[in-house]
Amino acid sequence: MARRRRLKTLPDASRDLISELPVEVKDRILEYLPTRDAARTALLSRHWNHVWLQHERLTFDCEFVQSFQQFQDDDGRTLVNIINNILFTRAGPVKKFTLEIDTEKDPLASPQQSDFDRWCLFLSRNGVDELNLSLYSDRGQDYQLPFCLLSCRTVKKVIVEGPFINLPLNACGIFSNVTSLAFLNVVFHRSVNGIASSISIPKLEKLAFEDCQGINKFEISSPKLEILSVISYIYDLVHARWLAAHLKAIKTLWLCGSSLSCMHVSMLPTAINLRVLKVYELDFGCWNQFLVSMQLLQKCPNLCELWIMADELGWEDDNELNDAASKLLEDGSGCLFIQEMQMLNTIKIEAFSDQSELEMLFMKMLLSKSPALERVVIVKSWRRNASEVVRKIQRKLECFPRASPNAQIVCTGNEYARMSKDWMDTHGVRLVD
User: How does 282-319 read in b/e, with b if 16+ C-beta sit within 10 Å?
Assistant: First the structure.
């Protein structure tokens, strides 16, 4: 019997192969497109229009605002109109919503509080899972985060920058299912005068504040909290007591050098579960910050990782402090630790300067009291160039006695992993340098 011949068919060049992709694949394609371009796919065919109307991620960021400015049509539509048209025509839930508007750069793009309220109400009723809200105004417009978002039960991750928040007297049910919270330049108010509100957030795992005011207006109860970040100046003991309430349970703590200046470590409990401590912009030119950082380490007996970014403007031309540090180094009294750091295995210090004797004193103490130390990474100050500086720092550090025979010291001039990027990766936002 003759074997049948299989005929090869050539593909039709006019055939739309992309539109025949599964809906899930097309939705993934839209995720990688800016919102403006994703919306344009609705014009391709009814297949793409269906996918676009059910797309769950909307981003109205600086890129979106710029594209609006460049391609404004003759119909006189405002940015608010366009956001309304995109948001309120959803055929499904909006899982992730990003809004970044800076009216200092574009006053015409400024939404009113009523516009913002409508968007938030719609999101709270349509299954929003992740919120990234950034609103700034130079025209006296203070945006308030509506209560419908504070009490939204579907939200799991919240990043808020700019708007102020009125804390209700009865704070029950606020952020009830949220696991990650980050506030930047947020002012917390109380709706009524009185004692601080008590807020229970049972599922919260990550909590971050950067340059916020009014933290003392409330107390948070969060039994699952593991990562706490307070990158702002702690003005009084109220803020320190607020920090103390979380210190026993958390595993990772972010602080900044300025907050150490007025912190009374004696009132802090032992951070028995703390494994990672990161200090941003520690001023080695400030004797008080230096001493408090030493005292704080004593409160962290199980610390495994210590990361520090030095404040490069603080250490220069401070001869008195350097002389005092040199004296401590010479007479051997630099070992100020009461106890050894038994579990400390990693140290990383960025913006390290060979000009600061206090930094050298700090490293001498750590090396002499860390028997489990394995890796020390020193990133030199960007203001100190040349590879000779790196070699000089390495030679100095290698002369110090080490409690751990396995401790490896690596000095580099590359800023390959700045703490600000690490903070951004941890909390999903950027840290102001």
Answer: bbbbbeebbebbbbbbebbbebbbbbbbbbbebbeebe
Most confident range, picked from 96-110, 240-254, 290-304, 408-422? 290-304
249 and 193, same structural domain? no
- How many CA within 13 A on the CB side of residue 181? 23
Q: What is the token pair recorded at 351?
A: 């913006």
Q: Is residue 356 part of a domain?
A: yes
Is there a contact between 179 and 206 (Cβ–Cβ < 8 Å)? Answer: yes
Question: How many structural domains comprise the chain?
Answer: 3
CA distance linking residue 180 with residue 407, whole number of Å: 35
165, 150 in Cβ contact below 8 A?
A: yes
Separation CA 216–CA 240 (nearest Å): 9
Beta bridge mates, 219: 198
The answer to whether residue 13 is domain-embedded is no
Single out the residue of 336, 278, 271 nearest to residue 306, CA to CA. Answer: 278
CATH number at residue 420: 3.80.10
Contacts of 161 (CB under 8 A, 6+ apart): 133, 134, 135, 136, 183, 184, 185, 186, 429
CA distance 180 to 202: 11
Q: Which residue has the higher pLDDT, 92 or 49?
A: 92
Are 277 and 360 found together in one domain? yes
> Are residue 246 and residue 210 in the same domain, yes or no?
no
Domain that holds residue 145: 57-221
CA nearest neighbour of 53 among 64, 37, 42: 42
Helix (H) or strand (E) holding 70: helix 62-70
CB burial of residue 170 (10 Å; 0-12, 13-18, 19+): exposed
**Can you tell me whether residue 429 is helix, strand or coil?**
coil
Q: Report the percentage of the chain scoring pLDDT > 70.
A: 72
Contacts of residues 333-336 at CB distance under 8 Å and 24 or more positions apart, as own/partner, are 334/361, 334/364, 334/365, 335/364, 335/365, 335/368, 335/369, 336/294, 336/365
This model's pTM is above 0.85: no
Is residue 176 one of the residues assigned to a domain? yes
Rounded Cα distance, 207 and 173, in Å: 17
What is the residue-averaged pLDDT of the chain? Answer: 79
Predicted pLDDT of residue 7: 44
- Give 331's pLDDT tier (boundaries 50, 70, 90): very low
Show which of 197, 221, 245 is a domain's final residue. Answer: 221
Say which amino acid occupies 84: N
109-113, 141-145, 209-213, 412-416: segment of lowest average pLDDT: 412-416
